[in-house]
Amino acid sequence: MAFKKSAVPFSGTPEQEEKLRKIIAEHKDDPGALMPILQQAQEIYGYLPIEVQTIIAEEMDISLEKVYGVVTFYAQFSINPKGKYKISVCLGTACYVKGSGDIYNKLQEKLGIAGGEITPDGKFSLDACRCIGACGLAPVLTVNEDVYGRLTVDDVDKILEKYN
Amino acid sequence: MNVIKTIDELNAVKAAAAEVVATRVEGKDNGVKDVLVCGGTGCTSSGSMKIIEKLQEELKKNGLEGKVNIIKTGCFGLCALGPIMIVYPEGTFYSKMEPDHIPEIVEQHLKNGQPVKKYLYAETVDGDVIKSLNDTAFYAKQHRVALRNCGLISPEHIEEYIARDGYQALYKVLTSMSQDDVINTVLASGLRGRGGAGFPTGKKWQLAKDLVKDADQKYVCCNADEGDPGAFMDRSVLEGDPHAVIEAMAIAGYAIGANQGYIYVRAEYPIAVERLKIAIAQAEEAGLLGDNIFGTNFSFRLGLRLGAGAFVCGEETALMTSIEGNRGEPRPRPPFPAVKGLFGKPTVLNNVETYANICQIILNGAEWFASMGTEKSKGTKVFALGGKIHNTGLVEVPMGTTLRTVIEEIGGGIPNGKKFKAAQTGGPSGGCIPPEHLDIPIDYDNLIAIGSMMGSGGLIVMDEDNCMVDIAKFFLEFTVDESCGKCTPCRIGTKRMYEMLDKITKGKATMEDLDKLEKLCYYIKDNALCGLGQTAPNPVLSTMRYFRDEYIAHVKDKKCPAGVCKDLLQIQIVPEKCKGCSLCSKKCPVGAISGEIKSPFVIDQSKCIKCGVCMSNCKFGAIVKA
């Protein structure tokens, strides 16, 4: 998991904050509420910067350390913003034995970023993911909701072009 | 839907819905065709939703609305051929569908009754005879219990589940069986946990019922955090037949005395999550979840909790810690969850596929279930076939079926004429099975005996192009990444193992390192806190056991026999084949190739970066990896 802090400044809106506070108020007394609240907070903001974690800690009356501990434990939570186009390359076993590692490397090279990072223009972010379950199409990558399967390294350029 | 309180009301819904599904289930020709389109993750990824849209459009154009039903089902299993579409009552099997195929199929087949052969799955076309999918090699050898409704019913309609005996088992349990009757039936069936470890399910329930007598609250949990990369059977059950799991959890709740359940499902499975939400809402509306189910004093509610991408949360104590809203770290056992589980209360946790068997056991009896399988492993097992195999997808076979049958007959063998090298079961906790063990009947105990394990059912096939050291390294990289860091043997030990494997793949290791690696494996196995760490060395140990010569080749000869490990590769020009055209030397980005026109060129190994550009440009196949 990447812990490198992003250089992109936080730009939450009052509407987002209001929405977040409402969700916390509704759920904070549910048993085990922190995870579902974090998941919804990430849906609102796209990621979980320290500013958002602070609001959650204060409203739930728990320590920021506890919130941060949970956020950094799970791969799904991100403390860095994601690109306009989120690229995930499946590095699950079925995809790996069919060469998804090479595709991942090619993307890092092409985008000039490492896994877990975002391009300076905020357009692409790249992550490795573990099995999206489309093993019949291996090797697979996703760009936001679009799934690309049965790939070879040569397909990478064509896919990136689509989003330029 | 009205609230169902009595068996008559349940049977009335069943009778009405049975008519609806008769075309598919019994092949009954009532003048209406059912077109089933797979809406599982695999086919959705290859575009099955576009197929449905196009179908709707074309049916309208041809005035076939009302004469053809479109049903979005769960996974059919043959994901390699997706998107899949099946037309009933005849059961014709269209594969690799594209929206462009639809107009022809609607016009010729759905309107005029003539299947469009060129779009059918090739194996089902034999001259003029068109076979149904049940007669193909892929399906003929399967036996579907957990997957019985997947790809047959619409998972978003509770009526269709009820048509297939849905909620009859829950009724039977609540009205005619005691808690012990239920537990004894599950015990007698011999059902063992399908999540990997194979603990007897009935025993688990018995402990949760009996160990703590005066508990004010108990819980039933379902482990749907299918983290083994390459395994997707649980997802397919949830996508294709979610009510089977919900009903079974209610039965478990009755058996142990719990009125609350939680399903912990991977957030990476959006379709499964959506279908579960729909199914739970429908069951609540029908009164099959909630207070006083079937008018008895048994009440049961279900909550959904989403995981957030942590493999360790498949471990039972970690999963419960995560539902509680914490870092999903495991804790030492005892106390076992049957005594102190979720929120400190007695808890039963079973895996999705385990639950998917329960209702069938209750309805058909323990003897029926125990008649399938081997002496110590009863019933069937679902495997997710993946990797270097023709028919990637989902198969369910009786326990005791040989790997050879699964790979060669059902799976259709290895593509491109390559040679089988190993089958990997059990994911990051399992091991690689070499060709000499292909004829071993698959069950829990046999797999352990040959150094692998059942795991959740991922079965990845590898061919001669896969390097076994690289595969071991791949799994270790996974474990290092997923180790929660709580205990030292796992946190530091797996990292050291990874470093040693990395050294081997780079040709920098000595034979002494191999011994050290093996010792470290056993140390971690004995000392790690939870199942993740204890099983993490398995991929290394099993590949060292069966493919030791490959390790030695890396260490002693500094060669990777499969040609995978880049640092050990040399790209060479075969002088006899080289025509001396100089194309390779022009293409080489580092100027490592030299020679004279019309005589063989040579690669300067000290400059070569092994990028392979020369190989892909050589028109004579004269450049090879060695």
Record the strand order, biggest sheet of chain A: 2-1-3-4
Tell me about the largest β-sheet of chain B.
Answer: 5 strands, mixed
Number of domains of chain B: 5
Which CATH architecture of the largest domain in chain B would you pick? 3-Layer(aba) Sandwich
Within CATH, the superfamily of the largest domain in chain B carries the name NADH-ubiquinone oxidoreductase 51kDa subunit
Q: What is the 3D form of chain A? A: elongated
Of all protein chain pairs, which has the greatest interface, and how many residues does each chain bring to it? A-B, 36 and 53 residues
| Low-pLDDT stretches of chain A | none
What's the end-to-end separation of chain B, in Å? 68 Å
Kindly give the count of domains of chain A: 2
CATH class of the largest domain in chain B: Alpha Beta
Strand content of chain A: 5-15%
Oligomer: heterodimer
N- to C-terminal distance of chain A:
28 Å
Question: Any idea of the CATH topology of the largest domain in chain B?
Answer: Rossmann fold
Radius of gyration of chain A, in Å, reads 18 Å
For the biggest sheet of chain A, the summary is: 4 strands, mixed
Helix coverage percent of residues of chain A?
A: 40-55%
Approximate strand percentage of chain B: 5-15%
CATH class of the largest domain in chain A: Alpha Beta
Mean pLDDT of chain A: 90
